[in-house]
Design a protein that fits this description.
The structure is a homodimer of 326-residue chains. Chain A is α/β, with parallel strands linked by helices. Chain A has two domains: 144 residues, ATPase, nucleotide binding domain (Nucleotidyltransferase, domain 5), CATH 3.30.420.40; 153 residues, 2-Layer Sandwich (Nucleotidyltransferase, domain 5). Chain A contains nine helices and 13 strands. Chain A has a five-stranded mixed sheet, with helices on both faces. In chain A, a hairpin with a 4-residue loop joins strand 5 and strand 6. Chains A and B meet through helix 7 of A and helix 7 of B.
Chain lengths: 326, 326
C-alpha cells in the first residue's frame, strides 16, 4: 500500500503524551517513514493544588499549553538542527479531542487544556508549516499506511495504555466525528466500578494497563510497577493476577465485539503497552471473540507494528500532507 | 442542504422489505424528492418446510430471489408506464448485507438469500440503469439529505422496526464496512434473552417493535397486534406494559450511548414503527441519555421525517446517482 509522496522528505514529528513527549526527525519516502534522530522528554505541566477552583484549573490548563508549546518548539529546533537537508514541515500529535481542520486542541482531561490553538501558537514560533493531529488517529494512520493494517479499507487500531481509545478506519477513511469519535474505552460493559470519566462500567476501568496495575495492587495490598508486573504474575500462575487479567480480557472482548458489530473491521490492531504481552493477550481474545461472534464479519487480530512510535510516525505522515483517505 | 441534481428527473424507486415491497415513481429535483405514484405489495418468498436441510433452505433462498426479481420488475414496469416523461433509472433497496459497488445482495437472514446478483438480474429485465442499495442506508440517505438530519455531517438514523439497525453518517459519509456496518441491534447489553441471531443479550431482543409485542404477549398470556398495542397499554397505566416498555427504553438508551461514545453524532434520528410513539419514546430516551453522558458530545434526538417512506426516497436518490458523500 505505502504512502503517496513522490520524493523523500525530512520532517520533524512530535507526539505529545500525558507523561512523555516523543519527537523524531523522520525521513518520509514513497514507501516508508524512517526515524533518523529521536528525542524524549517529560511532558511539562502546570501544578494544580488539591481542591483548586474551576478558574484555577482553567488557568493551569492555559499555563500547561504555554509550557508544552515551549517544549515542542525546542524539540523542533533541536531536531531541525540535526537534519541533513531542508526540513519540510512539522507534524504534532496531541491527546484528547482535536479539531484537525482548525488546528485546535479542543480538550484533554489529562493535560487540562481546552480550545488551545496549538497549530497557530506553534506556527508563530517557527517558519515551518505545522500540522496538528490527534495521537490515536495519528497512530492509526501509521499502522494503516505502513504497519499492521496496511492494505485494509476497514480497520481498527486499538492502543491499550493508560487509557483506551481507538482509531477507526472505515471504507478507507479515518473517522473523526468532530474530533470525538473512537472513545471505545468509555462504553459501558456492565461492571460496577467507577471510571475516571465519571461513568460506571467503562471498559477502560478494568482493561487499560493502568487499571490492570491498580486492580492487582488493590488485591495484593502493595503497589505494582505496571501491567507488565501483572502479566509476569499471570505467567507464574498467580490466581489473583489471573482473575484481574481475565476481567481485562472479558472487557476487551466485549469492546472488540462492539466494534465488529458496528463497524465490521477486517483487521483489529492491538497496540500500546499491553500489546507487548503478545499471546497472553491476543490468543485468548481471539478465542473469546470466536465464541461470541454470530453473523458478523470475523476480524483478524494483530499486534501493532510500530509500538509506541506509531504516534510519531503518524505525525510525520501528517507533516507531508498524507491524510487518512485513500 | 438539499441534493445535487441540476434538473428534475423521474425515477422508479423500490424498497424491498421482509414483509412488504414499497415502490414509487419519484420526481427528484435539486431540493426534493416527491413521490408521484405509489405501489405496495407483499414480498413473495419461497416456502420452507419445518426442519428443512441447509440445501433445501439455500434452494428456497434462490427461489425467493427469482420471485422478488419478478415482483420488482413488474413494479418498475407498472410505475414506468405511469410516468409523465422519460424515466431516468431505477433504484432498489434491499435488506441485510449489501455490496453496493458490486450490486450484490450478500445476505438476508429474513429473506434467506446469499450472494444474489440482484443488480445484474434486474438489469437483464429492463433497459433502465439499475442501482442497488441497502434499505437502512437508503433510509439514512433520505433523512440525511432531505429529512430530519439534513445539514449534519455526523448523524445516526436508527429505524426501530421488526429489527434494529443503524445508518451511520460520519464526517459526511455513510459508513459501509464492506456492507456489514451498523448492526447496533446486535450489540450485547447484558440481558439474558436469546436473539434470533443466535447470541444472548442483543438490543433487538428487548427493544425492537417485534420484541415489545412478543414480550408483552408472553406476560399477559394472549397475542397482541404489535408494539402500538403495548404503547396504548402503557398510556392507560398497565404496569406489565410499562415494565416491558422500560426494558426497551433501557436497551435503546444503551445502544444510543454506544453510538454517541464511538461515533459522536450531532443528531440521532429515530425511525421505524416505534418512532410513531413520539414522546412516549423520545422524551424518556432524552432524559436517560442526559443522565448517563459524561464527556461525550450530546446529540439531538429527533423522529424521522419520512417514516416508512424513507427507504423508497433513498432508493430514488441512489437512482439519480446521489451517493452518501458530500
Amino acid at each position: 500500500m505505502g504512502i503517496t509522496v513522490e520524493d523523500t522528505r525530512q520532517v520533524v514529528a512530535v507526539d505529545v503524551g500525558g507523561t512523555e513527549i516523543k519527537a523524531a526527525l523522520v525521513s518520509v519516502g514513497p514507501a516508508d517513514a524512517v526515524p533518523l534522530r529521536r528525542r524524549r522528554r517529560h511532558t511539562p505541566r502546570a501544578a494544580i493544588a488539591e481542591g483548586a477552583s474551576a478558574e484555577e484549573q482553567a488557568a493551569a490548563g492555559t499555563r500547561t499549553v504555554e509550557l508544552v508549546v515551549d517544549a515542542v518548539h525546542e524539540l523542533i529546533d533541536e531536531l531541525r538542527a540535526e537534519a541533513t537537508g531542508p526540513v519540510h514541515a512539522a507534524g504534532v500529535a496531541v491527546p484528547g479531542v482535536v479539531d484537525e481542520d482548525r488546528g485546535i486542541a479542543v480538550y484533554s482531561a489529562n493535560l487540562g487544556w481546552r480550545d488551545a490553538p496549538l497549530r497557530a501558537l506553534l506556527a508563530a514560533r517557527t517558519d515551518l508549516p505545522v500540522v496538528l493531529g490527534q495521537d490515536i488517529r495519528a497512530s492509526g494512520l501509521a499502522e494503516a499506511r505502513l504497519g499492521a493494517a496496511r492494505g485494509c479499507r476497514d480497520a481498527v487500531v486499538l492502543p491499550i495504555g493508560t487509557g483506551i481509545a481507538a482509531a477507526l478506519l472505515v471504507d478507507g477513511r479515518m473517522l473523526r466525528g468532530g474530533g470525538f469519535a473512537g472513545e471505545i474505552g468509555h462504553v459501558d460493559i456492565g461492571h460496577q466500578e467507577r471510571c475516571a470519566c465519571g461513568a460506571v462500567g467503562c471498559v477502560e476501568a478494568v482493561a487499560s494497563s493502568a487499571a490492570l496495575a491498580r486492580r492487582y495492587a488493590a488485591r495484593i495490598g502493595r503497589p505494582v510497577s505496571g501491567a507488565a508486573e501483572v502479566a509476569a504474575a499471570v505467567q507464574t500462575g498467580d490466581p489473583v493476577a489471573i482473575a484481574v487479567w481475565e476481567d481485562a480480557l472479558d472487557g476487551l472482548t466485549r469492546a472488540i465485539l462492539l466494534l465488529v458489530t458496528l463497524l465490521a473491521p477486517e483487521v483489529i490492531v492491538l497496540g500500546g503497552g499491553l500489546a507487548l504481552s503478545g499471546d497472553l493477550l491476543v490468543a485468548p481474545l481471539r478465542d473469546r471473540l470466536a465464541a461470541l461472534i454470530s453473523f458478523q464479519r470475523v476480524p483478524v487480530l494483530r499486534t501493532a507494528e510500530f509500538g509506541d512510535e506509531a504516534g510519531c510516525l503518524g505525525a510525520a505522515l501528517l507533516a507531508v500532507g498524507i491524510q487518512e483517505d485513500r
